[in-house]
Fold these 3 entries.
Entry 1:
Amino acid sequence: MTHYFGNLQMVRMALVCAALLISTGCASVQYSALEKVGIHKRDILVDRVEDARDSQTETREQLVSAYEDLSSLIGYDGGELEERYERLSKQVERSEDSTAELDDHLRDIDRVSEDLFDEWESELELYSSAALRADQEKKLALARKQFATMRRRMQIARDRVDPVMAVLNDNVLFLKHSLNAQALAALRGQASVLEGQVDELIRDMEVAIAEADAFIARMRGS
């Protein structure tokens, strides 16, 4: 059992190195080197999808935390406004960092998926058996369709982030020089607007995460 988990860790480390190599050098050369040690584009794509899925979860949780802090601050009736504002500001900064990381992971997915599907298609010409070639053509078409569905879901969820971030940034900026009861009262209508946007974000993130899990399972099982 210890040996098994040790191998998993080695594979994971190799995949991390693969992502760094592909992003910094000639992709075809790096892919060739990795395939010699048993790491193929399919493995890298699955790993990148897992990273993006986890990043979506982190982004969702971070934005919900920022929204909750803003709602708490707007509805707060007491002292220590500065401390609560600073907490909100930090949450919004973390949300921006999480979003940037998510964008990086989505770009990684696009890069590796394009390389994988291009290779898969080019290999169809290598078959002498028409039956085997036809089988792979069907599998490739299905994989592309499944990937497109998953990626579209991920992008829908990603696009929900921007309106939420816009409201959060506007509120943080507004309160920066007007941190008082009057300013908080002026923002109370913003909380309800943001609540609806956060609900949509959570819903679409959950759909995208489920779609990513299904895609990962199919790629590993095929």
Entry 2:
Amino acid sequence: MNVREYFQSLSQEISALKHRVRHLIEDAHWQTDGEWKETVVRQVLRRHLPSTAVVGRGFVVTAQAQTHQIDVLVHDASKPVLFRDGDLAFVTPDAVLGIIEVKARVTEAIFREAATRIGENSRLIRQHPNTRAFSALFAFDVDRRARPQRLADILAEVAPSYDDRTNFACLGTSTFLRYWNEDPETGRRIYKSWHAYDVPELAAGYFVHNVVDAVSPESVFRNSDVWFPRPGKEPHRTAVTTATWA
């Protein structure tokens, strides 16, 4: 199986799990439906991340404040935790590798709300400072009226500073957004922009492997042909928005 086929299989697996849960619980327990979707994302990430990365949920705590509840909290296994019970953990900012907000479905309004929440959580973590921590959004479905350019614009609008940025987002099976600090085509000049991509049946694969890249960048860089399909996402770019603080 090549990388493109594996990306497609990830999307199909996640979609199948989503429909299975919806069929089992119908409309009776929306909270259970949402919690299971978060569990699906955590399970998939655990299969790919190194044992040094703990995948759970919880809160990040400082002496002054704490984050909102984080659906998927990835933290460093070598760092102590303030409290842990099963998947639930309370950690300090320096222990955070990344945070993910999970949504069943997003409209433009829900996307804005989620990205704002991600920014608030990210700012608290990154002002520690913790520059390595990524932040992301995973949505199982996206409103077809949500235009890629508008989604990229929203990410810029709700990120008044570098610390507030959302690094990447998977919306449904085919829409992927990513922040680039350097130009992805040259890898040199400072770029500070979000790209939106139309990648049919590959968005979940790009999401998972971007999480891996954020946690273990050196390994992914040395084996990039194994982790990402060629020629990559840029031929499928549909929108570009530059950060307001660029």
Entry 3:
Amino acid sequence: MSPPHASVWREWRGPLILVVAVFAVWQLLYLIAGEMAMRSPLQTFSYLRGLLAGDRIWPHIQETARASALAVLISIAVGLAIGLTLGFRKIAGEIFEPMLVAVYSIPKLTLYPILLLTFGLGLSAKVAFGALHGIIPIALFTINAVRNIRPILIKTGRALNYTTGEMVWRILIPAALPEIFTGIRIGVSLTLIGTLLGEMFASQRGLGYTLMNAMGLHNVDIIMSITFILIVFAMLVSGVLLAVDRRLHRRV
């Protein structure tokens, strides 16, 4: 039997090697590109520490966090509602699933002017733009998850005279949860990207707005610092969701 520290090392070896490799490549790119294009990891950390110690960046972090949280909640709620409804009702699913795929194939930036006219310039527009990226993937994964449920489970629910709500809560969701959660994991990632894009193109607050403003002014320190914040946040969210996803699949 291997000692506990050996199993811990095996579990964390991959992520640690990846982190070291990323910082090594980052430093190498800095040596190649020079000061005009980027900053070294040490310079970025030094600037970021001063930036986080002040009050200038925190309102933008809070704005992005609030918009992202609202967009994720809407994506999950609406995506699950659509997916469970169309997955459970076969005829409706066969009719509307191709429509969802067609809508999702449309480049999202072409729809952003419509969202701006509908919701205005502010929090609502970027929340809607973020949710637009996540709803359909979650719905499509949920539809397929419900379709793959063993028919005997559905027959059992009908034999017990379950209502539609009871069928969804007691049978569909528990049986399809691993695959549904995979869709949620992908949908959340896309929602975060959509929210950030919404801030970059039509917003006056948030990390996306600050990043675009820094790019216009060629402020490399701000660009590198905000990019690092976004990467760390995305990695943390993806890591947590991926760990839960793997645990759910191992239980199947």
